[in-house]
Amino acid sequence: MTRKFNNVYVADSYTIAGVYEKDGPIADYFDLVYDKDLYYGCDTFEKAEEKMLSNSISKLISHAKLIDSDVDYIISGDLENQIAASDYALRDFNIPFLGIFSACATFGEGLYLASNLIEGKMAKNIIVSTSSHNMAAEKQFRNPTEYGAPKKKTTTFTSTGAASMLVTSKKSRIKITSATCGIVQDKGITDVNNMGAVMAIAAADTLKRHLKDLNIKPDYYDLILTGDLGIYGKEILIEYMKDSGYDLSRNYNDCGLILYDRDKQNVFAGASGPSSSALTLSAYIIKEMLRGKYRKVLIVPTGAIFSPTRAFQKDSIPSIAHAISLEVSE
Amino acid sequence: MKDRYNEIVMKHTPKEDVIKNALLVFLYGGILGAFSEFLLRCYVMWFNLPRKEAGVAVILTLIIIASILTALGVFDVCVSKLKSALIIPITGFAHSMTSAALEYRKEGLVLGIGANIFKLAGTVILYGIVSVYVFGIIRILIIGG
User: Fold this and answer.
1) B2·A187 Cβ contact <8 A
2) Residues 6 or more apart from B27 whose CB is under 8 A from it?
């Protein structure tokens, strides 16, 4: 269902990106780029992800001139088993923590929950965070990181970075106006190297329900963004939505195609991972909204919520997408 | 509607360049084979080894080169260019073991490297041994040893 909000705003955000994101088209928008290597000064990739996430939260808190006790909740999740990056990063803070998992749609779920808590006056300041690390994800979901098996064209490339966003009840220029919670979808696709095809159906379902509930057309928004469908998932979504009578050909793009430049970078179908949509939204979209390029943006982070064990057992892959509508307030 | 979605998925799923990749692998794999033969003849000449033992030395050389390239982080880049030409020969086997060893060294020598080094290579060993038995038996039955 779609919730409408009157008192939910985005106060601030802080983004940290890595080596590959630095070569992408929106590199200048990140608050911090760590481009020395993928270790972020730590001895394992998992610790590197934890530190990136922890830093993005602490930098956001200090940037927003808050202290820990001003923040009611941190809602965070990531791709590691047991959402380890979030669990371990949150040891550094004296703030109530809600750990969530929607795979690459985690940031969407976090924003949905935060907006509801704030609109319901159950919280004033909530930090929504997420992270992903190319190598930590590669190791967990695919092969050892240095192993070079030939990859399919539909493969996506997990982004490296962490993003934290401060959602608040205090008026600011960016308002979260509505949000639609995802429903789990599964079209029987078993190919773990074609996540765009797995997730496009979830994006389509959430998008259709969002537009129907609010009785608006896609052109209501200056920009509609999905999280990490990649180039082929984007094509699938456009055609599938066209079949259902919605025209996405003019104002729709995918964060996975904004974060990286497929022509110059060897990223196959595009970026993926929770930080794909989180970095694009928190760094690029928010800043461009403040500059006046976009006034109304709908972001639909998409997640393939699959377990490697179930995938090895040849089960099909479920997916989910949550939609968050952001508008520049007067 | 399920069928319609899957139709659209099929339409927008790009075909892998099977023939182009196969030709590439044929070419690069062939070059690797020719290089090995060259090395073999060199070993025979330089070290005065019989051909069979020189072959073992060539295999060891390839394993060492593949492992060092893996450790330097170069091998996976080469694979993205040369495809299975590097994965199918012994170089791929060495690569799978070295990459697993690198990955799990943080988890200890026994339960990390020890338990995981054959993560990818184990299947080659298992089915290698099984097929050796099967074809050995067939050989004995047909030509008597």
Assistant:
1) yes
2) B85
What is the C-alpha to C-alpha distance for residues A135 and A146, in angstroms, rounded to an integer? 9
Give the residue on B whose Cα is nearest the Cα of A44.
B106
Which residues of chain B have a CB within 8 Å of the CB of A149? 79, 87
A243 vs B76: CB contact, 8 Å cut-off? no
> CA A130 from chain center: how many Å?
7
Q: Tell me the shortest Cα–Cα distance from A149 to chain B, in angstroms.
A: 7
Could you tell me if A82 and A217 lie in one domain? no
Q: How many CB atoms lie within 10 A of CB A58?
A: 16
Residues A148 and A8 in one domain: yes
Q: Torsions phi, psi of A248, nearest 5?
A: -105, 5
CB A68 within 8 A of CB A90: no
Domain, as residue range, for B70? 2-143
**What is the number of domains present in chain B?**
1
Across the range A293-307, mean pLDDT stands at 96
Domain range for A129 is 2-168
- Regarding whether A257 and A140 lie in a shared domain, the answer is no
- pLDDT value, residue B128: 93
- Pair (A186, A125) in one structural domain: no
pTM above 0.80, yes or no: yes
Q: Which of A168, A198, A233 is the last residue of a domain?
A: A168
- Mean pLDDT of the region A74-96: 97
Total of domains in chain A: 2
Both A237 and A199 in a single domain?
yes
Give the ipTM. Answer: 0.89
pLDDT band at B2 (very low <50, low <70, confident <90, very high): low
Q: Which residue of B has its CA nearest to A148?
A: B76
